[in-house]
């Protein structure tokens, strides 16, 4: 089986810090190679992989201002689809622009939809559903107008996330600084309980950060920026709970399962995929109001941190994700 894996070019694969789509692409690619699948990864040329790396984009457009996103994205797509006949299947991780090329080749195409943002993108999905096999990353993210080949939850390499059996008294926010992700709600909940809060993540909306986050920072509400590697793992494990008080229907949420892998329970708004990821009262709490979030923080000590890690091992391993995709590829290829 020869697979062409199409990565996004916003960030390197794997990303240095932020880049959830690139991270999932990397994890799946490496797991497929381990299973003996012949994978060619089409990604930025600074990417790191045990697969065969192919590409024309010198650097990620989010890191190099000389890279025009639209220009290089289409160069990236053309480079892959010109070689489509070399592959048994193309796995697109780079959103809907690839669909424009799909009818021009005979090679089957799988698209993992990393979040269906709005009906405005439907014209680049609905007309292609006889040609492209769509994968949802949660049942909550399925759109009623589309047919799906499967729902496949993301997986993570459990061994990369060290278990912290004790955590700390501090609370954690881990994600983009953007109204969707609920940093302001996390700050309000932490203050209501008198607990310290550590915030990690890129500033995606500078106005929101300046308005809702920066004025709240003090010796107990601390913003640390983006973090990777060992510092990321330590931050995820060293908390009483992860506050994920989102204001949108999140399609998945890698930080949720990463925190649970480290033993940290998650307190999340009951929206989007959160009920699929969190078992209420076992690996965290699902809440509907700020008052419920505050009450959940007080109850976080009731959660067995080992149960959080077990849930990730049983349901969200990268091995399970890879096996699910291989089964899908085989089904498509007959």
Written description of the protein model:
There is one protein chain. The strands form 2 sheets. The protein has a 7-stranded parallel sheet. It has a 6-stranded parallel sheet with strand order 10-9-8-11-12-13, with helices on both faces. The chain contains 10 helices and 13 strands. Helix 1 (20-34) crosses helix 10 (318-333), helix 3 crosses helix 8 (290-299) and helix 6 (254-261) crosses helix 9. It has 334 residues and is of the alpha/beta class. It folds into 2 domains: 2-155 and 317-333, 3-Layer(aba) Sandwich (Rossmann fold); 158-315, Rossmann fold (3-Layer(aba) Sandwich), CATH 3.40.50.2000.
Any key phrases for this structure?
Glyco_trans_4-like_N; 334 residues; seven-stranded parallel sheet; Glyco_trans_1; Rossmann fold; Glycosyltransferase involved in cell wall biosynthesis; 2 domains; six-stranded parallel sheet; 10 helices; alpha/beta; single chain
